[in-house]
Write a structure and sequence with these properties.
This protein is mostly helical. It has helices at residues 4-20, 28-44. It contains two helices and no strands.
């Protein structure tokens, strides 16, 4: 089992290799939008060996829990 620090380091390494340096970005807006898409792929579709070759979201029991409420 990886420690929290090891997981952070591994995630940062993957983020760098698969996203940040995989292409040239023409704007911060383009990069930010692509990061949203990559994050969904990484957490909901990409298999992770630490969770039995399933995506991390497969461990959620109550669905998405990080949606912020809208205040008006």
């Amino acid at each position: 089992m990886l420690s929290r620090m090891e997981l952070s380091t591994a995630t940062a390494s993957i983020l760098s290799e698969e996203f940040l340096y995989a292409r040239t970005w023409t704007s911060e807006q383009q990069r930010a939008r692509a990061l949203e898409v990559w994050n969904v792929h990484y957490n909901y579709h990409r298999p992770h060996t630490a969770v039995g070759n399933r995506p991390p979201a497969s461990k959620l029991t109550a669905g998405v829990t990080n949606v912020m409420a809208s205040y008006s």
